[in-house]
Amino acid sequence: MPHIIRPMRKEDVSQVNEIDREAFPGQWPPPNYKHELQNLVARYIVACEEGAVMPPPPGEARGWWSRLVTWGRKSPAALPPEQFISGFAGIWILADEAHVTNIAVRKSHQRRGIGELLLIHIIDLSQKLKATNMTLEVRASNTSAQSLYRKYGFIEMGVRKAYYLDNREDALIMSTENIHTDSYQALLKQLKEVYLQRWDNHLPSV
Ligand SMILES: CC(C)(COP(=O)(O)OP(=O)(O)OC[C@H]1O[C@@H](n2cnc3c(N)ncnc32)[C@H](O)[C@@H]1OP(=O)(O)O)[C@@H](O)C(=O)NCCC(=O)NCCS
Fold first, then answer.
1. pTM of the prediction?
2. 137 is a catalytic site residue
3. Which of 26, 147, 177, 178 would be a feasible disulfide site paired with 166, CB 3.0-4.6 Å?
4. Other beta carbons within 10 Å of 128
5. Active-site entry in 33, 44, 149, 152
6. Residue 205 located in a structural domain
7. 147 lines ligand 1 (CB under 6 A)
């Protein structure tokens, strides 16, 4: 099913927490995404399967009996169904820099182009918000994420020793060149074109 990207909303937070716990089990305390949605420098997006919804919680029938029992009350059964979220990403805009805070995809949905889709959208968003460079930290052992970032022009700028508290692992600091230069725009355009030939997901304009 094709994926779309939209801004994260407060109704998404429980699914986002689930994805965060699965993706970053050693990270403590976990980020408070409800607060992050209020953070003026932060922007979060989610990837949803077009048309896919979460099943109602067990015991919450949506048949005629449930409608009769809850008639006149604002019951969960009367609310629109929750969209199924496959992944999310966030940035903080700090002066002219976009710092990638998180990018994660459910294990069950990895290797289907969703991480790349999220990254393309946050690069696009950073450009619109007038950031010149993008930067992030990634675990030294996280070679799959590093490979994704390298593909999009992030290069290793340094190391933060023992940055991760759970196992004192080093973080690589990775940054892009100025994302408004002709050379970066050309790289992004080419990567988007290749992406569109490979995946049936929705990209920002090419
Ligand atoms: C990193 C992550 C977001 C990638 O998401 P994904 O949806 O599986 O990635 P995609 O299918 O879009 O792959 C895009 C690129 O990522 C890299 N990549 C992703 N998974 C990889 C793997 N298992 N091995 C090597 N490269 C990998 C490749 O460069 C790939 O491009 P390619 O298909 O042309 O080789 C995902 O693995 C994840 O959520 N990991 C846990 C959380 C995490 O580590 N986040 C990064 C924090 S800094």
1. 0.90
2. yes
3. 26
4. 10
5. 149
6. no
7. yes
